[in-house]
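1st attempt posting a full record on here, be nice pls
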Amino acid sequence: MPIVDRHAGAASEPYPHSSTPSSLYTREGNIDPVHDKEIEGMAFPADKTIEAAHIPEENTSYAVKTLIIGGIAGCTAKTVVAPLDRVKILFQTHNAHFAKYAGTHFGLLKAGAAIYRKYGVRGLFQGHSMQLARIFPYSAIKFMTYEQLKMASI
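the predicted structure (as tokens):
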């Protein structure tokens, strides 16, 4: 089916990525469109896209990649909010040095500035390495599981 270009008014061939499952059976057997190889013993249902079928080696590689990416994403998110988390913990423990900032307008910012003046940047990230050691495996497993279940439901 030709595609009409709105600007030129001329018909062009379909895009290479717009293949349907029926157009993938061009040769005998099933064809992997990414690697253009035959996949023996693998049937592609007509109502599913070809991406739903994965070779086990590719699936393992994808699982490892999503495991690492999930861990990095979780650590990045925790690092961004670490200074706010530090001040929150000081407020929750009713630290005597920071009690004067609790419950005031801009108390969070004033307490953060006081920590920065007294201890520097390291004071805002105190205890952060243990937080990262906890969050990396948690977010890695959570993201990998999400991606694997999403892939299985396609």
